[in-house]
């Protein structure tokens, strides 16, 4: 087995025993990256020299007898997370040459833990999208079928993990952007509870739902990374004070007696093959001793309309800072007035999806429309939240497919923005409620991976690792 | 619905976005389609919901004292800002 094909737990054993070095591990990753970058385009920036320097530093620490879950482990960060001194583009022309002046908290934590940053992965610009086709740098390809998308917006991260470019990657999930690409690429993707992981240094999209989380080769690995990046941060006042657990240690715990509710609305209208995959999942959960009951969540389907009012509203506010003054794209001035130059910076710097969302947001927040759209959406959001809370008084975990189908072909959803929005139909409501969820590889349809989603109550990440890893082992599905 | 060109132009002005005529045309249709879809929320009965900004989080306060950034970070930020003068960033004349 090539070293870059290792998962975190296996690499940890070999690093600690001295069987391999972080330098060897990193070099194996870099070789793979160079071989496949042109074919897959999963990375926007590869920081080879810096990665090798970090690997050598990690090896020094290991020789000194130090150990740590991620010491010497190579990873990628999605390019909407600030990495000091390194280009951070948000996948957009607007920030094409932006050098981040500081590290995101998660990047700083991983550096202290001795993880090795390989580079920054591709994404839909400003995380607006479900395919990476909105990236200014071109779409990433799905490693399982390069005519297809890897999903999005964390498509680069998902593809990088699936193709063994790294041992884990960081993504961000606002309405499905970790889980959906994880499903499409056949990897594990964990969206933590809102506030579990600091957003300091994450380029804001929807401030009330954005979360950073790991994409990994195994569910246990996702727990290990979560423990390293989670926690209260004085630089992000929306982070939660609750103790960070050793989430990786929930893997392997029995799920006998766990009550799992499968959401009936998410099974209506599924294709025959998707239903087969989900039946397989249900059977394995039953074999493991879990109880499976049907649960109805009639408000779940409101997730997309609510999300596509609240998200553009918050996006229109968050992207207002991108004006070419302190940073970002600057149009040539010629004889333009202040106002015209300002508009041109933004008009040239933003792609169509960003502009759509900014204008939609402006519309739904404006006088005369905010009651009908924004306030109504926030009210409907409360209905979604209450419905989940009520469901969790009956069951411990909820089960849905992550996506209704596997990866679609490049260009398939280009004609109508709405068809792209509907890709997150099972994911968005979870984000609106701030709940944790994980996508676990569940099977294949015509050779393409598809994932199932487990949802837990707030701060229930441990249960997700517990159930997810049991399922993963039973499905024997962690080999990509 | 299809939004009127004037609506798109007005939104673009409010959001400080320059749009080409072809863009205006396209967004009339695309935004109209999204608004039709999200407009289905009008049918949802939210009469029992009392809107509040409160949640389980509480505000985090600190003294309003300036915190000096590390010099390296300041320089990285400043050099990307264009012309600076007296500690500020110089921009074009705003008021006519």
Uncertain runs of chain B are none
Largest sheet of chain B: 2 strands, antiparallel
Q: Which two chains form the greatest contact, residue counts included? A: A-B, 62 and 47 residues
Helical stretch tally of chain A: 15
Q: Multimeric state of these chains?
A: heterodimer
Task: Give the ordered list of helices and strands of chain B.
Answer: HHHEE
The amount of beta strand of chain A, in percent, is: 5-15%
Strand order of the largest sheet of chain A: 1-3-2-4-6-5-10-11-9-7-8
Classify the fold: give the CATH topology of chain A.
Amidase signature (AS) enzymes
Please, what is the CATH homologous superfamily of chain A? Amidase signature (AS) domain
Point out poorly predicted stretches of chain A. Answer: none
Helix percentage of chain B: 25-40%
- In which order are the strands of the major sheet of chain B placed? 1-2
Distance between the termini of chain A: 13 Å
The Rg value of chain B, from CA coordinates, equals 23 Å
What is the correct CATH architecture of chain A?
Alpha-Beta Complex
How are the elements arranged and paired?
The complex is a heterodimer of chains A (480) and B (96).
Chain A: H1 8-17, H2 22-40, E1 43-46, H3 48-63, E2 74-78, H4 105-112, E3 116-121, H5 155-162, E4 168-173, H6 179-185, E5 188-191, E6 211-216, H7 219-229, E7 259-263, H8 272-287, E8 291-295, H9 303-318, H10 338-349, H11 352-365, H12 371-391, E9 397-401, H13 417-421, H14 428-432, E10 437-445, E11 448-455, H15 461-475
Parallel strand pairs in A: 2-3, 2-4, 7-8, 7-9
Antiparallel strand pairs in A: 1-3, 4-6, 5-6, 5-10, 9-11, 10-11
Helix pairs in contact in A: 2-3, 5-6, 7-15, 8-15, 9-11, 9-12
Chain B: H1 5-14, H2 21-38, H3 71-79, E1 84-85, E2 88-89
Antiparallel strand pairs in B: 1-2
Helix pairs in contact in B: 1-2
